Amino acid sequence: MKTVYAFLADGLEEVECLMVVDLLRRAKLNVVTVSIKEELMVESSHKVKFFADKTIDEIDFEQGDCIFLPGGMPGTKHLGECKPLVSLLQRQAAANKNIAAICAAPSVLGQAGLLNGYKATCYPGFEQFLTGATVTGDNVTVDRNITTGKGPGAAISFATAIITQIAGEEKAREVTSGMLL
Question: How much is the pTM?
């Protein structure tokens, strides 16, 4: 079973996080939500509180097939400041494993030097942080092993792109059909 690690920080955008996690789980992917803090409870940008499955210190991430970063502010800022996460993203990229980020979160990839020569998209106003990328402005951009999304309204198509990349087109159609999309 393919494993996706969804990294959560206080101030994340809940729609981008929960919609994507929901669809990935409907695709029967093993999605593990990971708090970058020492505690499991995470509070979203709109003050919704929920619990991650694990903390960043509890998991061996080398076994994962994809790393997913939801956007939102100041969640994205917290993700970018998390040195263990940035190091993991760099190792994931070096191994050509899948990385997905939506909204402001692609800026974490750009600032970590992971978008050089890639096409990417992000929430308007964060383009300057996609260092080295060709910014598409599309709702979803898939370039090799990196999937980026524009914002909350793109969460379903972004999740569908991740499913397609990891589990195949037929699985993505099965999930979207079951949701009447």
Answer: 0.96
